[in-house]
Amino acid sequence: MLGLAVTAGFVAYQLIVDLQSPRSPSPAVMIAFVILCPPSLLSIPFLDAEVGTSGFYFLWTFIGILNAALYAAVRALIVRAKIVRAKTAARAKKSV
User: Fold this and answer.
1) 78: Cβ–Cβ under 8 A, 6 or more apart, which residues?
2) How confident is the model over 17-76, as pLDDT tens digits?
3) Angle between the N-to-C axes of helices 2-16 and 27-36, in degrees from 0 to 180, rounded to the nearest 10
4) Measured distance CA(18)–CA(21) in Å, rounded
5) Nearest to 69 by CA among 32, 30, 42
């Protein structure tokens, strides 16, 4: 869910600061979102999907799902590493 929330924040930021807005997007914020949402780089070939159109929402829904899957995979790897570490520690404790 965290990956989807990060993507939703990215989309909200893009809607607030779109190309027609007097505000320009902050490069630091955009870099932070790219780091937190690596699948957002997939939007580069689809620059024709203008902010607020149905194509924009379809593209970012797909990116949100990919980002949620990425965060879930990272979480699964962390949990698995903790389980393996706990089993290894338990075996070492039994052998002593």
Assistant:
1) none
2) 876 667 777 889 889 989 999 999 988 888 788 888 888 899 999 999 999 999 999 999
3) 160
4) 5
5) 42
CA–CA dist 5, 33 (Å, integer): 11
Q: What is the DSSP string of the chain?
A: -HHHHHHHHHHHHHHHT-TTSSSPPPHHHHHHHHHH-GGGGGGGGGTTS-TTSHHHHHHHHHHHHHHHHHHHHHHHHHHHHHHHHHHHHHHHHHH-
Domains identified in the chain, total number? 1
Residue where the block lists tokens 């600061």: 17
* pLDDT at residue 66, rounded to an integer: 94
Q: Report the alpha-carbon distance of residue 61 to residue 4 in Å, rounded.
A: 9
Q: Which pTM was predicted?
A: 0.77
